[in-house]
């Protein structure tokens, strides 16, 4: 569908849909102020006004990938809405921690609407800080944000229905094995093949040492990153639950922790200050030493390898970029050594 057709489709929605889901009274006008195109969707920002007020809403049009038939797509859209609705209602009891509010869903029209969230993404907050070069008031604010994000994740995992089974480490071992194979296939990465045996040996020696507490399963967001987290003062709102699934409780926790570490690769973000944000995050999560647990370290190995695979897509570039990528590989190998220290 063309963007212009999508705009017409949104403006043609029955006024009762807006009036019954928003506190605006009788609908007067819909203004589309922005359009975002993503690989599998178009999203428009709408200013919806009525005789009793105005609300801003995002309407998402799902673009059908070739791998899904229409029935599967409509089931996915309804599932996304139900997840938003469930978690929005669940988090209503937690002050300062919330989930984006679903407004309405039209599976047959491939559309879902959510309310606009106040504040800005945590990614934009970090960028706006101008780099983590020295501590200051702005940095102190970031520390509070990351602590609150950790608390949000703790609530999310604790509020989910308990999962009786324990995480199977063999799934992680197989995942890592596949990624090691991809890295060594790409000769331009110069990933040392000796690390394949080193990592495999570490996992084999330690897989039976995991405690039941470490192996606890949880309902994970599965796309828990700085761009999906909105902050406004001390309030935290999380977006986009489309990838949510049952997984290890450390999947979200460790991935977000590793994403923070990658900021230290940027010249204006000091590792020492990034580590303070990591500490604040884990402290808010309620496990200040989670990064020292065995399974958390195993997940960090997975995230490190995944990052290297992603980075290699851009390694056939200029000489300067190749030098930088070699430096990144050096840093990541050093991290792998640290994670496997016994």
Give me the secondary-structure topology.
Elements: H1 3-11, H2 15-21, E1 27-38, E2 41-50, E3 53-62, H3 70-91, E4 97-99, E5 102-106, E6 111-115, E7 120-121, H4 122-128, H5 137-159, H6 169-185, H7 194-206, E8 217-220, E9 229-232, E10 235-238, E11 245-248, H8 250-263, H9 271-285, H10 294-311, H11 319-339
Parallel strand pairs: 4-10
Antiparallel strand pairs: 1-2, 2-3, 3-6, 5-6, 7-9, 8-11, 9-10
Helix pairs in contact: 5-9, 6-10, 8-9, 8-10, 10-11
Describe the structure using short key phrases.
5-stranded antiparallel sheet; 342 residues; 11 helices; Phosphorylase Kinase, domain 1; 18% strand; 2 domains; alpha+beta; Aminoglycoside 3'-phosphotransferase, Chain: A, domain 2; 4-stranded mixed sheet; 11 strands
Give your account of this protein's structure.
With 342 residues, this protein is an alpha+beta fold. It folds into two domains: 3-115, Phosphorylase Kinase, domain 1; 120-339, Aminoglycoside phosphotransferase (APH), C-terminal lobe (Aminoglycoside 3'-phosphotransferase, Chain: A, domain 2). It has helices at residues 3-11, 15-21, 70-91, 122-128, 137-159, 169-185, 194-206, 250-263, 271-285, 294-311, 319-339; strands at 27-38, 41-50, 53-62, 97-99, 102-106, 111-115, 120-121, 217-220, 229-232, 235-238, 245-248. It is globular, with a radius of gyration of 22 Å. The termini are far apart. The mean pLDDT is 92.
Low-confidence stretches: none
- Mean residue pLDDT: 92
The named CATH superfamily of the largest domain: Aminoglycoside phosphotransferase (APH), C-terminal lobe
* CATH-scheme architecture of the largest domain: Alpha-Beta Complex
User: Structural class, please?
Assistant: alpha+beta
CATH T-level topology of the largest domain: Aminoglycoside 3'-phosphotransferase, Chain: A, domain 2
> What's the shape?
globular
Taken together, the total number of domains comes to 2
Give the SSE order as H and E letters. HHEEEHEEEEHHHHEEEEHHHH
Strand order of the largest sheet: 1-2-3-6-5
Radius of gyration from the CA trace? 22 Å
Main sheet makeup: 5 strands, antiparallel
- Assign the CATH class of the largest domain: Alpha Beta
Q: In DSSP terms, counting alpha (H) and pi (I) runs of 4 or more, how many helices?
A: 11
Alpha carbon gap, first and last residue: 55 Å
Strand content: 15-25%
Number of DSSP-assigned strands: 11
- Portion of residues within helices: 40-55%
């Amino acid at each position: 569908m063309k963007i212009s057709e999508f705009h017409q489709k949104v403006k043609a929605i029955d006024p009762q849909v807006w009036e019954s889901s928003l506190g605006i009274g009788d609908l007067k006008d819909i203004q589309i102020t922005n359009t975002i195109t993503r690989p599998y969707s178009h999203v428009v920002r709408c200013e919806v006004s009525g005789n009793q007020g105005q609300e801003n809403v995002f309407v998402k049009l799902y673009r059908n990938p070739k791998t899904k038939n229409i029935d599967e797509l409509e089931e996915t859209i309804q599932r996304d809405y139900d997840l938003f609705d469930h978690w929005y209602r669940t988090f209503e009891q937690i002050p300062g921690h919330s989930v984006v509010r679903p407004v309405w869903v039209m599976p047959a029209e491939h559309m879902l609407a959510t309310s606009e969230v106040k504040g800005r993404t945590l990614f934009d907050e970090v960028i706006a800080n101008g780099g983590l070069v020295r501590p200051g008031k702005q940095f102190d604010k970031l520390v509070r944000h990351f602590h609150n994000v950790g608390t949000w994740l703790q609530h999310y995992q604790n509020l989910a229905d308990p999962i009786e089974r324990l995480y199977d480490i063999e799934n992680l071992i197989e995942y890592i094995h596949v990624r090691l194979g991809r890295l060594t296939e790409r000769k331009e990465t110069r990933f040392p093949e000796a690390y394949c045996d080193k990592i495999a040996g570490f996992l084999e020696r330690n897989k039976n040492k995991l405690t039941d507490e470490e192996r606890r399963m949880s309902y994970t967001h599965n796309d828990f990153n700085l761009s999906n987290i909105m902050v406004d003062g001390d309030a935290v709102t999380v977006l986009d639950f489309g990838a949510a699934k049952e997984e290890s409780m450390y999947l979200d926790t460790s991935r977000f922790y590793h994403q923070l570490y990658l900021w230290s690769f940027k010249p204006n973000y000091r590792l020492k200050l990034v580590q303070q944000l990591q500490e604040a995050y884990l402290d808010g999560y309620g496990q200040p030493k989670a990064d020292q647990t065995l399974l958390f370290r195993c997940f960090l190995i997975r995230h490190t390898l995944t990052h290297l695979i992603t980075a290699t897509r851009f390694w056939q570039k200029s000489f300067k970029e190749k030098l930088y990528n070699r430096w990144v590989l050096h840093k990541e190998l050093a991290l792998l050594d640290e994670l496997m220290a016994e």
